[in-house]
Amino acid sequence: MTVVAFAEKNKAAAQIASILGDGEVDKISVEGLPAYEFKWKGEEWFVMGLSGHIMNYDFPEKYNKWNEVDPGVLLGVYPEKFVTRAEYAAAVKNLAKRADKIILACDYDREGENIGFEAKTLSEEVTNVPISRARFSALSPKEVKKAFENPVEPDYNMAMAAEARQILDLKMGAAFTRFVTLSVREKARTKDILSIGPCQTPTCGFVYEREKIIRAFETKDFWKITAIFVAKGGEFEGTHRAGNIYEKEKAVEIFKRLKGTKEGLVVKKTVKEAKTSPPNPLNTTEYLKRASKFLGISPEAALEVAEQLYLAGFTSYPRTETNKYADDFDFKSLVFDFARQNEYKPFAESILSAPIVPKNGEKDAHDHPPIHPIRAASRREISSAVNISQASDVYDLIARHFLANLMPAAVFEKTHLHLHVQ
Fold it and tell me: pTM value?
């Protein structure tokens, strides 16, 4: 029995092969592209990574002449799907001919399902063997083996959702880009193309509206009087009760009155207990915010780093709307793993000293679990395995967020002092 599996990318294919083949894997070439051969459960296996989408939509040739086709006509034309990466199409067919069954193992989201269907379509041109789907959210041995031991039917509706997006992008983008560009060319001597798209155009609109608000904002100078107080136990900064002072003369007057003062008398002290709740589990949006805020990484770069960590088997799939863990999530095993890692040991041991209760968010999109580490790793291990800037920092952010989510609320005191200075 020969089984062929198609992953979304070569790195994922290599990771899957290493897990199923238990490290005993032969790297081979199929139509000049890398693939992996091994034995698992008494069967001959081939796993190959694609290159994202290897097929795409476009209009038939006769609609490609801008000046001869009314842009509005394009909205009613159904585009054709064609192969964009011939070498990958040839490799898929080559392996499909050898297979007794085929398993699609692309990322578990709309685009991944659609990419898998591209491999399915090409395979069905040369064979009629059963084609199933392996679904996993992390490239960990446990998840990968479970997914391939329990394959399911490919999700036609999910794949077609991505297909609809591609067709709408093409129709709207092509029709409106041609319409606006040709209209401008009638009035101005330019050969520039004015690109219109269902994503970029609304985004530009948001940016434009925000820019208008920024430009319309009128700045106003203000002054603030602060002082450094030295007390038993350390220093602290105090701010004059006037807060933001918009009259310079008043600010100067207060400053002159206080300048040179050596002492302040505490006339009132208020102490309140405060709590900071653990953070909700990470979904993609929250991850991108935190990567930007704490690490100074752009959203695009942050997603690329998270993708590489996922492909290397350190973290879960980075594209998810869910911020709520499933009831059967195995926290204890993962936290035990972190208890063996010096950098995270104190936090993990603290979590293990009491029942583990995550602070869940409210959204379960039924796509992937929240972004989380799938095993403990040192900075050195991350840096050697993932050759991309700030990979260890991003892993550390995800790991600490995961552990913080399982800890109790932080309890602290907030002290407010009123001082009389003269």
Answer: 0.81
Domains and CATH numbers, the chain: 2-160 (3.40.50.140), 284-406 (1.10.290.10)
Alpha helices in 237-378 (DSSP H): 248-258, 284-295, 299-311, 331-339, 345-352
Write the pLDDT tens digit of every residue in 1-47: 999 999 999 999 999 999 999 989 999 999 999 999 999 999 999 99
In 170-206, which positions are buried (b, 16+ CB within 10 angstroms) versus exposed (e)? bbbbbbbbbbbbeeebeeeeeeeeeebbeeeeeeeee
Cβ atoms within 10 Å, residue 113? 25
Q: Nearest to residue 162, comparing CAs of 123, 107, 202?
A: 107
- Selecting among 36, 310, 317, 395, the annotated active-site residue is 317
Of 145, 43, 148, 140, the residue nearest 105 (C-alpha): 148
Question: Does residue 317 have an active-site annotation?
Answer: yes
Q: Which residues contact 333 (CB under 8 A, 6 or more apart)?
A: none
Task: Specify the 3-state DSSP secondary structure of 320.
Answer: coil
| pLDDT tens for each residue of 187-231 | 777 778 888 888 888 999 999 999 999 999 999 999 999 999 998
Q: For residue 282, what is the DSSP state?
A: B
Q: Are 22 and 142 in contact (CB under 8 A)?
A: no
pLDDT in tens, 256-294: 988 888 888 999 999 999 999 999 999 999 999 999 999
Q: 26 has which bridge partners?
A: 37
pLDDT digits (tens, 9 = 90+) for 306-332: 999 999 999 999 999 999 999 889 999
